[in-house]
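Inputs:
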Amino acid sequence: MAERRVNPVELIGAAFLSGLQYTGGMALLLGAAARWTVAGLFTRKVRLSRDAVAAQTVRVGVRSLGIVVLVQMFIGVILALQMAPPLSDFGQEAQISSIIGVAGFRMLGPIITAVVLSGFAGASIAAEIGTMVVSEEIEAMEAMALNPVRFLVVPRLLATLVATVLLAVIADVMIALGGFLTAKLVLGPEVYSQYWRLMRDILEYKDFYTGLIMAAVFGILLSLIACYEGLKVRGGAEGVGRATTMTVVYSIVAIVVAACVFTVIFYVFGI
Amino acid sequence: MTVMQSTTDKRQPPKPFPVIRVENLVKRFGERTILSGVNLEVYPGQTTVVMGGSGCGKSTLLRHLIGSVWPDEGHVEMFGRNLCEMSEAELDDVRKRFGILFQSGALFNSMTVGENVALPLKEHTDLDEDTIEIMVRIKLELVGLRYAVDLMPSEISGGMKKRAGLARAIALDPEILFYDEPSAGLDPVTSAEIDQLMMDLSSKLGVASVVVTHEMDSAFRIADRMVMLDGGVVLKTGTRDQFEAIRDGESAGDETTDLIRQFLRGDSAGPITERRKAGGYEQDILDVAEGRYAR
């Protein structure tokens, strides 16, 4: 077989073009979902199924509650134990609660929650929609004049948005609690007696709501990627498997990139 | 199975205007031309069977008829209007006037059989819940599945899934019904039952049916008109009687007719098998024996 020399310019170009196509496709999907949501809220002709949104919220949010609680509690413990030694060098061990509060509420709560959900909910949404594509269910929907974006994407998007924000709040609490338990059980009274007071002192409302804004964006991103990958599936079980994997990969990348963008914006504007 | 009585007691003579018209349809996927210039007409109240071997393009043709796929050249008209020139809203209006039975039934796996059949009624009509429930049971009784109304698709057999899919396809009392390989994977009795259903729907409700199949027994049972596709081209269109004449007749030297006859009879020898043989098989084996192959 003749070998084809790989042209690096071609590779970069192809990657760029496919990235552009992906972003464009996702933007179109988001636009369509937004139009259907607005139509459902404001016109009588289009009815958005509240049952579907509720069912999806249970599936995405309620079912992942346990794992989010567990993971975030451990994050709190890790933060506390990792920060305690360097801080005690400065005699500032008690300040771990400030660090846990700011890092947890602003960053770790939203990001870790979104990453967990991209595995828990994103992968399952992509697999579910991908399987529907393979078994001709999507084609059947379209042939019955039922728009798949309206019936499948919108409920999942809304449910994931709501669930990610609410779970981020719970995550914030669990991180703080994890840190407190570590302080109580390991670090000693100089730390835990001031834990909540110092955290309350350092935290401002903006720390809380910037985290929630980020969580909302993460939720939209991960469910959009999941739905897009699911709808794009071609080629049977292998296609579904690939879509599921790529959903998690792309979601995590998108979440981290978005977090970075937000962080820069907040830093520049002093939010 | 009970059959719903037609509400009109006088059947009008079939309208001569075709309810579907395909003109010079060409479709390519990359380098391959799947359909090269297909012409087809479907008339109301009649069952048109589209047949051909695997890979002849019949499934692609069906997808053009339901507006899933768009032609590269030519056009598809339904109810007198070109599908390509319609807006999405107009297309949706047309979609509510036909029903499709997909090969696997294509039921929505997250809903019960009853909910599947109710879905088009819920979304496209303003009927109240009780009326919808009554209509669901009527449609399910038509296909003999009234007892399965609360079962999930994963709990029913392949034949039942098809019948449920058919109940859903007729939920809105469509004017056209499409069937994609309705007998695939069914035992002979269930297949005959589905055929009988199709004929009842056609004769009692005046529905125009387009059936894609290669089961000849079924095809000759249900067809009013037949279309033979091969390699993306229509070999012949005609009435069932005309095709029966070909099937029962003798070879007269015309290769196209011989090919059709081989297909209709299911003969293992004929132009179709000759065509498959002409692939350089002996040379290929000799090449491998002498080490001339790429690996």
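Chain B has a mean pLDDT of 87. Flag for discussion at group meeting.
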